Amino acid sequence: MTTSSLVLKRSARRRRRLALFFTLAVMVSLIVLAVRYRTENRQTLDYLGLVDEIVQEELVVAQTLRDLFGSLVSTDRPEIVARIELLGEQTSELADLLEEAEVTRAAAELHGFMAVAVGAWHQGIDSLDEAVVEVMEQPDDAVTPPPAFVEAVMQLRIGDQAYASFREGVLLLETDVPPPDFPQVAFIDGEDPTDVESVARRLRLRRSFGERHDVSVTANTLPEPTGDRNGVAVLPFSDTFDVTAIVTNAGNVLQEEIEVTLILAVGGAERVEPFLERRFIAALEPGSSKPLEFASLNLEPETLYTLQVSVSIVDDAEPDNNVWEVVFATNAR
Question: Could you say which of 88, 115, 184, 322 is the most buried, measured as most Cβ atoms within 10 Å of its Cβ?
Answer without folding.
Answer: 88
